[in-house]
């Protein structure tokens, strides 16, 4: 790893640690959002454009640095902006943050991993060229894989940035809208687990697997039918 990559890694780690350390205890909590909701609503009414830009920038920063709190920020967006405004802001900000995180992972780690696991990475790259969008779609929707981990792993592959952007934006949209709607009833929430029920998580998993299963079925049975 050259000096530029080491410097970037140190800067990112430093920013992450600094933000986490400087945040007051309990700042990223549901109770804190409820306490400050009306104050933030007043701020949005006084300066809507400035508030939207600040919210967007903070969301991108949190997403790009993989700082815990994106779910709470999404709830906040639903609480202080209209649904269509919040959907636009969160969808773009989360996708931009995810793409930046993926590109950083690619820049810092891709070459190192490729040198040490060349055969395995070549196999993965072949699969990503063929089914990369489907894999990413499934990973984004399946609750087993954290947001930051998907960004990290996809950065190690050769998936094209434009594909990464639109698939991420599309796959993250359902959960985004659900959280934003929940944010509109922020006062009634007691825990984040109230938002996504086990049944809904299972439905997301099935939806994520659908493109992969469909492709597998076509590749397995369509050729035999043609014969």
TrEMBL record:
<dbReference type="GO" id="GO:0005886">
    <property type="term" value="C:plasma membrane"/>
</dbReference>
<feature type="transmembrane region" description="Helical">
    <location>
        <begin position="200"/>
        <end position="218"/>
    </location>
</feature>
<feature type="transmembrane region" description="Helical">
    <location>
        <begin position="163"/>
        <end position="180"/>
    </location>
</feature>
<feature type="transmembrane region" description="Helical">
    <location>
        <begin position="53"/>
        <end position="76"/>
    </location>
</feature>
<keyword id="KW-0812">Transmembrane</keyword>
<feature type="transmembrane region" description="Helical">
    <location>
        <begin position="135"/>
        <end position="156"/>
    </location>
</feature>
<dbReference type="InterPro" id="IPR032816">
    <property type="entry name" value="VTT_dom"/>
</dbReference>
<feature type="transmembrane region" description="Helical">
    <location>
        <begin position="88"/>
        <end position="109"/>
    </location>
</feature>
<feature type="domain" description="VTT">
    <location>
        <begin position="67"/>
        <end position="184"/>
    </location>
</feature>
<keyword id="KW-1133">Transmembrane helix</keyword>
<keyword id="KW-0472">Membrane</keyword>
<dbReference type="Pfam" id="PF09335">
    <property type="entry name" value="VTT_dom"/>
</dbReference>
<dbReference type="InterPro" id="IPR015414">
    <property type="entry name" value="TMEM64"/>
</dbReference>
<keyword id="KW-1003">Cell membrane</keyword>
<comment type="similarity">
    <text>Belongs to the TVP38/TMEM64 family.</text>
</comment>
<protein>
    <recommendedName>
        <fullName>TVP38/TMEM64 family membrane protein</fullName>
    </recommendedName>
</protein>
